[in-house]
Amino acid sequence: MYKKITGYFLALLLLASCKNESKKEGADTWRTKKIALENAVQNQLLEVEKNQGWELLFDGESLDGWHLYNDPDADSVWEVVDGELHSNANDESLVPGDLVTDQPYENYELTLEWKIAGNGNSGIFINVQELPDVPTAWQSGPEYQILGADHMDYDLPEKRPGCLYVFQPQKSKVEVRQGQWNRTRIKQMDGKVEFYLNGVLTGEEDFNSPEWKNQIAETHFSKYPEFGKTTAGKIALQYWYFETWFRNIKIREL
C-alpha cells in the first residue's frame, strides 16, 4: 500500500513539473514574439523624417555603417538581437571595444534610444578621431554619459546620465528610466553642442571657445593630445563590460 501511494505522489510531482516546464517554455516563446512584434515598427523612418533629411544609422538587421574602433574585422561584442543593437558582455571569446561609425560627421542632429543594465556604464562619443596611435575613442571624443541607475557614480554631478562627462553636471536634473527605453538627442552646429536626455536639456558646450580649452587643461584629458580638439569626427558607442541596448539611431546633417 505504501509503495502504491508513493508511486502515485511521484507521478503527480512529475506531471506538475512537466506542466511548469511547458508554461515556462510558452512564456519564453511569447516574450520573444512580443519583443519581435514591438521592434517591428522600430528602426524605420517616417515620410516626414525622410523629407526633413533624416537617415537611419542602424537598420535593425545588421551592423552596416559601423565597425569596432581600430579593428574593423574583429568578431566583436556588438550584435543585433530582435532589432536591437546589443553589447554582449557575457561571451568572453568576443573582442571588446567601442562601436564607431564608418563616416565622420560635423554639423548634425542625432537621436537614439537606449537601455542599460542597472550597474552599467556606457556613453556616446562625438568628434572621434579614429587613428592608429589613438587606441580608444574616449581619448579624442567628448562623451555624452550613459549610466545605469544602480551604478556607484550615478549621483556624482559630473558623471550623471546625459551630462558632458567629467566637465559639467546636468543643466537640468533628469533621471534614467531604469529597465525602460531612454531617449537621447545630440545636436552639434559649428562646434556648439547640445545634449538632451528624455526631452530635457542636460548639457551645452562650445568646442571652439577658450573656456573649453581651459576645461580640458584642468582634467586628466589634457594628457591626450587629440582630445576635444576638433568639431567633426565619427560617432562611437561605448562598451564598458555591461550590457547595453540601442535602437532607432537616426541622424540628419544640418
Question: In brief, what are we looking at here?
Answer:
With 254 residues, the chain is of the alpha+beta class.
Attribute tags:
single chain, 254 residues
Question: What does this 3D model show about the protein?
Answer:
The protein has 3 helices and 13 strands, in the order H-H-E-E-E-E-E-E-E-E-E-E-E-H-E-E. It has helices spanning 2-39, 47-51, 210-217, and strands at residues 55-56, 66-68, 78-81, 84-87, 99-101, 108-116, 121-128, 143-147, 182-189, 192-197, 200-206, 234-237, 244-253. The protein is globular, with a radius of gyration of 22 Å. With 254 residues, it is an alpha+beta fold.
- Structure class: alpha+beta
How much of the sequence lies in strands comes to: 25-35%
Shape: globular
Helix count from the secondary structure assignment: 3
Overall mean pLDDT: 90
Radius of gyration: 22 Å
Order of helices and strands: HHEEEEEEEEEEEHEE
Using DSSP, what is the number of strands? 13
Proportion in helices? 10-25%
Distance, first to last CA: 84 Å
Low-confidence stretches: 2-6
Largest sheet: 8 strands, antiparallel
